[in-house]
Amino acid sequence: MDVIVVGSGFGGSVCAARLAERGLRTLILERGPWWGPLQRDRAESDRRELPRGALGARKLVRNLRVARRGRRRERLYNADGLLEGHLFEHLTSVTASGVGGGSHIYTAILEQPDAAFFDAFPPEITAAEMGPYFERVREMLRPQPVPMPSEKDRVFAQAVADAGLPPSEHTDLAIAWGRDPAHPEAVVNAAGVEQRSSTFTGDVFVGCRDGSKTTLDLTYVPWALRHGAELRPLCEVLAIARGEGGGYTVRYRDHRSGQTHEESAPRLVLAAGGLNTQRLLFDARDGHGGLPGLPATLGRHFSPNADFAALLWRTTALHDSSYGPSFGALSRIHRDDGDGLRFVLGEVGLPVQELPLPGLLRNLLRRSTMLFCMGRDGSTGTLAFDGVGLTTSVGRSLDPALYDEMESALMRVAHSYHPRRTWPAFLTGGDPDGLFTVHPLGGCSMGRTAEDGFTDHLGQVFGHPGLYVADGSLYPRSPGIGPSMTIAALAERVASLMA
Q: Could you say which DSSP state residue 44 is in?
């Protein structure tokens, strides 16, 4: 092999596709299975149906890592499960597992950040220089705004206006739209894979069953395989180290057979997700010692992207939050000094029809919804390693002024929905400093030198030629918007310059 890629999300799948396209012998190791009805031509041992119904829901949780209140616990429930949970002192994070990574559970938002965002990057990376890489992502994923706003989009637009916030905008979504949601049709995507157009009920947090969300297992991954890459699903990387003859060695467990194997290559791309990439690196430096001398900046500039949400229970303004794509519109709030984005605020409908719930509760949830914010926080958090796994004390105190401002705006918008009750930060368990995120970013941040970053502008780890990072941990600051498109664009750049 010329290169091993760990992970198949927005960083790994993009890198693998472009490296294979350039003729490099590329191996992708992915700890999860192929998911969903569009993968029924895959080997039965490698694919799983999406977790639905009372029986299927047991596959919803893959594993849980707890480092909270002085306790350390790690438990694997289902090696072929969908979601992974990390519970830190004040921060809870949920990420995905499977071929295509986080694209299975994100809301399909593909947004390009403003030029000011790139001021935190090394000087080689600017908004103008990144333009062609963003365009390549657009060509593959073909994002477009929702063509026919739903009831919840109209209610949100009115609520934002009532709150005195900037008007709502329909953002680009990686969803295949058809002419009529009631009559889905076949759509061939940029990778030549056939999807189905949106039924306005399929874009959910637990995998898209109607085949309309343009996930990475339908685009970049097939493109990589078509150009000669090899993908091994249900193969979880356990450790990384420098190879005896140079290059890098990866030890992994094949969950299909239960056996452990090793592979080596002169180049290794870590794209296991913002937390798991760092867990592997910390363990290689401070645990088993397979990669001594990794920069001391590992774990710095960590951010939860200022994710913040509230549940609006039984609103009178909204009749069915489950109809339409999970997300459609947002309001952008900029800094008072005009220097870039402060935060965004949007509404996310609840995937009621996809959850194994009693009929009465399902009907109540249809009248309920979530408001969420993402913000450009200070990105001054840190991750550490206790010899077993990651720890962090990051919480709302990371940027209290921003969280207070977001909560105030969110509550003003919530008022127009006339909910029976509003629960701000309902996912934090009552912790006043608690946060919940699906966007753990930073920790392997790009920098000019090993004193201010972990990787250079190429995504290559300082002092370790051939070792690259290509996921959300590269961010030196939070974008305050959905990070997926920038992760993919940076991976396009990493792969292009590496090849």
A: T
Distance between CA 138 and CA 173 in Å, rounded?
Answer: 11
Q: Which pTM value belongs to this model?
A: 0.96
**Strands 34-35, 26-29: pairing kind:** unpaired
CA distance 97 to 79: 9
Query: What tokens appear for 363 in the block?
Result: 């009907």
The Cα–Cα gap between 236 and 30 comes to: 6
What DSSP state is assigned to residue 38? G
Collapsing DSSP to helix, strand or coil, 178 comes out as coil
Q: What is the pLDDT of residues 191-208, one digit of tens each?
A: 999 999 999 986 778 899
Amino acid at site 336: D
Distances (CA, A) of 494 to 124, 165, 249, 412, 484: 12, 38, 21, 42, 15
Q: Which residue has the tokens 């995937």?
A: 351
Sheet holding 230-232, edge to edge: 230-232, 26-29, 3-6, 267-270, 467-469
Distance CA 291, CA 216 (A): 30
Walk me through the domains of the chain, giving residue ranges and CATH numbers: 3-498 (3.50.50.60)
**Coil vs helix vs strand at 225:** helix
pLDDT at 446 over 70: yes
